[in-house]
């Protein structure tokens, strides 16, 4: 994909006038090949749904093509859709900063969203988790409090949907740690819900945690493809790119002053 872009005239960027605005998917990135295949499969599904839509895949780290490189080469009318489930540092510092720098339009992240709560419930049912099972919602976690707050809101929504308590456990740097939450629960009556988009290191750890019922990641369902296209369509209707709002040194929030984003 990067090679194709480099075939354009030096110093120029692709012109997508008179066609659909290109869609740039931005995933976190993982060393696990299955994770990359999942992102590529999502792009394939989107192209199948909309054959005339030009879809690119990119990654924040660990994989090629790097989003920072791709963002500087795609047409300036491209729409960036972050394959992220929360707001946080990756979104504001990595995705939105590059979009602003390259005058691209960027959409809201996939999550949180009510449709994802429905998908979490579906994955639990597919894992044969009974309605009365205790639930731990496992998520990546972040140093950013707003990101972790998003996960807690999702847990509250899942709790209301299934009418059982839902605890939160983080796989990364945030607390409470998933391992600690699981250790405090009775594994025989515990179901683990995975608030992860695709396979990777964290999902592998969840899958081997020893709980009785373990749901798979959200994956590439029609819910995800519909959500991606909804984010794309909403952002594409806006013609003005992101504006930078450095509200504080520790929390660089990037927003569109004309309210593309409503965080």
Could you explain how this protein is built, in words?
With 263 residues, the chain is an alpha/beta fold. The chain is 37% helix and 16% strand. Helix 5 (114-126) crosses helix 6. The longest helix has 18 residues, at 145-162. It is elongated, with a radius of gyration of 19 Å.
Please tell me the overall pLDDT: 86
Q: Gap between N and C termini, in Å?
A: 32 Å
Portion of residues within helices = 25-40%
Low-confidence stretches: 1-19, 243-263
Give a concise summary.
This protein has 9 helices and 10 strands. By secondary structure, it is of the alpha/beta class. A 4-stranded parallel beta sheet has the order 2-1-3-4, with helices on both faces.
List the helices and strands and how they pair.
Elements: H1 2-6, E1 23-27, H2 33-49, E2 55-59, H3 67-70, E3 79-82, H4 89-101, E4 105-106, H5 114-126, E5 134-139, H6 145-162, E6 166-170, H7 178-183, E7 190-195, H8 201-207, E8 213-214, H9 222-236, E9 243-245, E10 253-255
Parallel strand pairs: 1-2, 1-3, 3-4, 5-6, 5-7, 7-8
Antiparallel strand pairs: 9-10
